[in-house]
Write a structure and sequence with these properties.
Elements lengths: L10 H6 L3 H14 L7 H4 L21 H12 L1 H4 L35 H6 L20 H12 L30 H12 L10 H13 L5 H13 L1 H14 L1 H14 L17 H12 L4 H10 L8 H6 L16 H21 L18 H8 L24 E4 L2 H41 L4 H11 L5 H11 L2 H7 L2 H50 L2 E4 L10 E4 L7 E5 L19 H8 L7 H14 L20 H13 L4 H9 L12 H6 L12 E2 L2 H12 L54 H5 L18 H9 L1 H14 L7 H10 L5 H19 L2 H7 L8 H18 L6 E2 L1
Antiparallel strand pairs: 1-2, 3-4, 5-6
Helix pairs in contact: 4-7, 8-25, 9-11, 10-11, 12-13, 14-23, 18-22, 24-25, 24-26, 28-31, 31-35, 33-35, 34-35
């Protein structure tokens, strides 16, 4: 049973005992005047704080905060029917705000009194017809702990606070801690205050090897080498802080840093090498991927990073990188022509762009307002389509026409030839133009002759008479025709001519003249065709040469607006063919206003608004995602959703501190990452007792160091790196490591087959792997990588039997294990176990581990000594003369493969 609008007397009314008729009059005036009424009687006289109240301090954990404790409960259970969406609102009640015509205070919530608060009675009702949320909603009822929070909040005054994520971050007051000696760093002080408020304490610092492996993985996506371990251990023993800072600076300066950090961004913007719909044609976005890698390596300020992606093409004189960056707007899924209506395809493309902007930069589920007002966040459908209008003006076809796409580039795209390439193209173009000048008149003359011959055939004298005569002679029953023919052959030409009548002779001369003309024309045409064939052959060769040069020219798909702005309408129920009210470009009203430079706001205005200091979302969202890279979970766990349905920050003041510092630093990404990894919080040991782990399994309190399963790319890349196979070549076309044949056949509608690359290419880092949306790389998929058809802000982490089977049996990993085994066999026999273990895990094995591995090695030697066919399989392609050497290599190959499958190898500790 929904709430029904009814009168709840305010505390002011009860205390002053106003006549009931006056109270009702006041209520009626409020209902009629609505927003024109200066105040609500109930809200004005309660004596509570307004919505401008600051959130409860982290240090006051015992108090109840609406923003931290109550809003998430109401959002999950109540906002769908009593929230921002007016279309689905029931009972004229909004629980997401205190005031206004449908606000909660004085209607459903009476501050300081649960007995007079209808909300309290509904959430604790025994009668199912009165219970909220209703049973048929399939939502869990409020449990005892949750109702206790609501009770305490109401009795403490039911203070509403502005939603934390929609208020611009401000630098909080420095926290005061008891254990000031633990660390003087800002990050650590906020973490420590939280722990001390809960009577917890941080863990001890991890050992040098663990720290080295952890930070090297986090900043480069690769493990440290044995040489790096030696150097760091030595430096760390002499001066830990200095050694740590120098290590961090070195890792941030390596080119592998950009490759690793870029991978997370490519997840977020759903980067892929194919369209992702229907026939899933190839689409070339290599330039964008390489730009992202370069941007992180060159430490491009994050505000420029955002601005160039949203509107790089709108700079007065855009640079190459700015144009490439605008390709962010072209990463959406796209269908091929002829499979849907173009109008529908266009709308889908724009919706995909808006969703990407909302997820990547704003951390909001703006797409939920496509069909109706957002049910949980204050985004109306009209505001959604005002945002949609910024991306509704692309000068591009909404579908892929494969006949017009060369090398995966679909208009609009730009070319970036080098000076040498442009010189060669100009030379070839000049030669082609010269040839065309020679070919054109010849073609013209050949066409004229062909036309003339056709005309001659149409107007030349007919030969019907002589044909009829021949026919009549052949029908002569007396055989006279044969006699005449024989006699004609014997007569001289002059006599034959004398035998012809003047009319026949004239006719014959005319025919001979036409025949002579046709012969002359045919001869000339033959000569022309011969000359044209030679010239066309030359031209074809030049054109092939030009195509080869052009193929090597860098290109990039970019964003480009139409000259005439396309109108935008609210789409009724989100249907592409149901336009409603026309809307103008704009941003959601609950966020800061848009500052425009022209009469019609541009994407550049939107980009500048996105990174304006007063924007409450962009810096917070970015900082949270960078934090997530190191700890496995963000300060806001729902890194894709900072709205009402998202989780509140575990450390809200720390998040704001980092966001403000990030902006004040000039949006310096490397400085932010260094600040995080230099903290004592990051350097804690990840060890925890069973009780500690059970109390905080996700480590939201940050009382220990991060420990979680590595991403798919990190698992693959570290195997190749430690084996010595990993290629260090950067950038360039996406590559195709081997995979089971026929996988693409299941999803291809064009007969396309997967053709693996050869040589060094198959050992390149995973960030360069060809990503087909309909069939992503199977290794990556099995290890939880997304298929890149949607924006993914955080990956799932699982541990499945399929993953174990992959890591044990994948031929690429077996080759890597064999490569490592060959390196192991070059070491002294007594050092081999330690060498292999340390190379793979960055740790030194203890005595028990060494014994176990020696036993395994002995068993493997015995097994392979009696199974030569298995040895041949494992040693295929390796030149080894002695059978015993093959057995040794096979045994060590499987031992190294075992090391690659240890939990420590697949886990960041």
């Amino acid at each position: 049973m929904p709430f029904q609008r009814r009168y709840f007397p305010s505390r002011f009314a009860r205390e002053t005992r106003l006549p009931r008729v006056l109270i009702l009059a006041a209520v009626l005036c409020s209902a009629v005047l609505g927003p024109f009424s200066p105040v609500r009687l109930q809200a004005a006289d309660v004596g509570r704080d307004t919505e401008d109240a600051k959130p409860v301090s982290e240090s006051d954990e015992s108090s109840v905060s609406f923003s931290r404790d109550i809003r998430p409960l109401l959002s999950n259970r109540c906002f769908a029917c009593h929230g921002p969406d007016a279309g689905s609102r029931e009972g004229g009640l909004r629980l997401d705000q205190p005031d206004g015509d449908e606000g909660a205070i004085g209607y459903a919530i009476e501050p300081n009194s649960v007995e007079e608060s209808e909300v309290w009675h509904r959430i604790t009702a025994d009668d199912e017809s009165m219970l909220m949320p209703p049973p048929d909603s399939h939502l869990d009822p409020f449990n005892e702990e949750e109702t206790e929070l609501i009770r305490r909040w109401i009795e403490s005054g039911a203070v509403y606070e502005d939603f934390w994520a929609f208020r611009a971050p401000e630098r909080p007051q420095p926290p005061i801690t008891k254990n000031a000696e633990w660390s003087a760093q800002t990050v650590d002080q906020f973490v420590l205050r939280k722990l001390e408020s809960l009577r917890r304490h941080p863990s001890e610092e991890a050992d040098a090897r663990t720290l080295l492996r952890r930070v090297t993985f986090d900043l480069t996506g690769l493990p440290p080498s044995r040489e790096a371990i030696r150097q760091f251990e030595s430096a760390y023993a002499d001066s830990p802080e200095l050694a740590w800072e120098e290590l961090v600076d070195d890792l941030l300066s390596r080119p592998q840093f950009g490759e690793h950090i870029a991978r997370h961004w490519l997840d977020l913007v759903r980067f892929a090498d194919t369209n992702g719909m229907h026939k899933d044609f190839y689409r070339n976005h290599v330039a964008y991927r390489d730009w992202v890698i370069r941007s992180f390596n060159e430490n491009l300020p994050y505000d420029e990073f955002v601005r160039d992606q949203i509107a790089g093409d709108l700079h007065p004189q855009p640079t190459r990188d700015q144009l490439i960056a605008s390709g962010f707007n072209r990463l959406h899924l796209i269908i091929d022509r002829g499979t849907a209506l173009p109008e529908e395809s266009h709308v889908k493309n724009v919706l995909d762009r808006v969703t990407a902007v909302g997820t990547a930069f704003m951390g909001l589920t703006v797409q939920c307002a496509q069909c109706h007002d957002h049910k949980f966040d204050p985004i109306t459908q009209k505001e959604f389509f005002s945002l949609y209008a910024f991306f509704n003006n692309i000068d591009a076809e909404p579908e892929t026409n494969p006949r017009q796409v060369v090398d995966g580039f679909q208009e609009p795209f730009v070319r970036f030839p080098t000076e040498a390439q442009q010189t060669e193209l100009d030379r070839l173009d000049a030669k082609l133009a010269k040839l065309d000048q020679q070919i054109a008149p010849l073609n013209k003359r050949a066409n004229q002759i062909t036309k003339r011959i056709q005309q001659i055939k149409e107007i030349e004298p007919a030969k019907e008479d002589s044909a009829e005569q021949d026919a009549s002679q052949s029908d002569d029953p007396e055989g006279n025709a044969a006699e005449v023919e024989a006699s004609d052959d014997e007569l001289p030409e002059s006599e034959v001519a004398e035998a012809m009548t003047p009319e026949e002779e004239a006719h014959a001369k005319t025919i001979r003249a036409w025949d002579a003309l046709k012969e002359a024309l045919h001869n000339e045409l033959g000569q022309l065709k011969s000359s044209l064939a030679k010239l066309q052959k030359q031209r074809a060769k030049l054109q092939r040469d030009r195509i080869a040069v052009e193929h090597g020219v860098d290109k990039a798909m970019v964003m480009k607006d139409r000259d005439v702005v396309r109108k935008t309408f609210v789409l009724i129920r989100g249907q592409y063919d149901a336009p409603g009210e026309e809307v103008q470009r704009g941003v959601p009203g609950f966020l800061p206003p848009l500052d425009t430079q022209t009469e019609t706001p541009s994407r550049m205005d939107l980009a500048n608004w996105m990174v304006a200091p007063e924007n409450p979302l962009t810096a917070r969202v970015a900082v949270n995602r960078f934090w997530q890279l190191f700890f496995g979970v963000g300060l806001v766990k729902t890194s894709e959703d900072f709205g009402n349905q998202g989780e509140v920050p575990s450390h809200p003041e720390l998040l704001d501190e980092l966001a403000v510092t990030f902006v004040e630093s000039g949006w310096d990404v490397k400085a932010l990452l260094k600040q995080i990894v230099m903290s004592k919080t990051y350097r804690q040991s990840s060890r925890a007792t069973p009780e500690e782990f059970k109390a905080d399994a996700e480590n939201r309190l940050l009382s220990r160091g991060p420990r979680y399963r590595l991403d798919a790319e990190m698992i693959r890349d570290q195997i190749l790196f430690s084996s010595g196979l990993l290629s260090t070549r950067m950038h360039g076309p996406s590559v195709k490591p081997p995979q089971p044949d026929g996988l693409w056949k299941a999803v291809s509608m064009t007969g396309e087959r997967f053709r693996p690359d050869q040589g060094e290419s198959i050992y390149r880092r995973s960030v360069y792997t060809f990503w087909k949306r309909a069939m992503p790389p199977p290794q990556m998929t099995i290890l939880n990588a997304p298929n890149r058809d949607a924006c993914i802000a955080r990956r799932e982490r699982t541990n499945t039997p399929t993953q174990a089977l992959l890591l044990l049996n994948e031929s690429e990993y077996l080759r890597a294990a064999r490569q490592l085994a060959q390196s192991v066999l070059h070491e002294p026999a007594e050092d081999r176990i330690v060498f292999a273990y340390e190379t793979v895990t960055s740790k030194l094995p203890d005595a028990e581990e060494i014994d176990v591995l020696h036993t395994l090695l002995s068993d493997l030697r015995d097994e392979y000594a009696s199974s030569p066919e298995l040895v041949d399989d494992l040693c295929e392609g390796v030149s080894i003369d002695e059978p015993c050497d093959k057995v040794e290599l096979a045994a060590w190959t499987v031992l190294c493969n075992t090391l690659y499958n240890l939990d420590i190898t697949k886990t960041k500790d």
